[in-house]
């Protein structure tokens, strides 16, 4: 069993050029590079028993070498996932197995009451991914290693497909802060967004008729008062931050694809609420609260400029106002602010 700690970022550019020309020369790391072509088939039952139990099941192939993997439910903060992963090497085969052999996984994989023997007889391939992967293994020292990969290809389900163009940062050894350090450097050299969905989640979404744009606004959260925030415990504050950050990120994706007055209002409201809770977190003090405060201030400066320009006024807002808002919401200051919040939450969980 491996414990995967991974941050996913999406982009719209040829990331390899930026990584190799602008990132790697600045890193104090020895770099091992590799180019791969990967094909993945994802399996579940007709009742989606694996999905319902927070598990993802696949067979991965690369040059006729095959591996079956199951990823189980873990914990996540926005685009950072921490979860157990079980891999079984199937060796070199003339073709991919039709289905995974569930008996090859250890018994500890299965949730209580999960009938994996019954599930074996019902497995079917639901969707596939095919992509090229550029691997950059970053060795900072013997105790610190990060795998940076750039994937580009597609997810296919039935007659639908979704483009893959994403960067993953996986901690192989060392402190989780190293992931955020590399992510911040990437944010300054190329356009990026937090990747909220795994490749498996995107496949299931295609099966359900979804695409890259969410069709409806996320459900609103309860509004907080200053008194509520002031009297919240540290654990309660962190929960409030995580929920509002997640909602804010979903709103950003929606607004980028479908700008609207209603979405604008929600983004502004959630940001005000997020700022209120984070200000209280900073008052409590921590090793990284100062960097969190600085990232918030940098974003707030740009955001305030958009607000003052009139984008929030339903009677005067124009397409140019929406364009300016999208530029700020998808810009580097917004990403750096999200990374600072995510790092704060992850490091506070370890306290």
Automatic annotation (TrEMBL):
<dbReference type="InterPro" id="IPR033469">
    <property type="entry name" value="CYTH-like_dom_sf"/>
</dbReference>
<dbReference type="Pfam" id="PF01928">
    <property type="entry name" value="CYTH"/>
</dbReference>
<protein>
    <recommendedName>
        <fullName>CYTH domain-containing protein</fullName>
    </recommendedName>
</protein>
<dbReference type="GO" id="GO:0046872">
    <property type="term" value="F:metal ion binding"/>
</dbReference>
<feature type="domain" description="CYTH">
    <location>
        <begin position="2"/>
        <end position="210"/>
    </location>
</feature>
<dbReference type="GO" id="GO:0050355">
    <property type="term" value="F:inorganic triphosphate phosphatase activity"/>
</dbReference>
<dbReference type="InterPro" id="IPR023577">
    <property type="entry name" value="CYTH_domain"/>
</dbReference>
<dbReference type="InterPro" id="IPR039013">
    <property type="entry name" value="YgiF"/>
</dbReference>
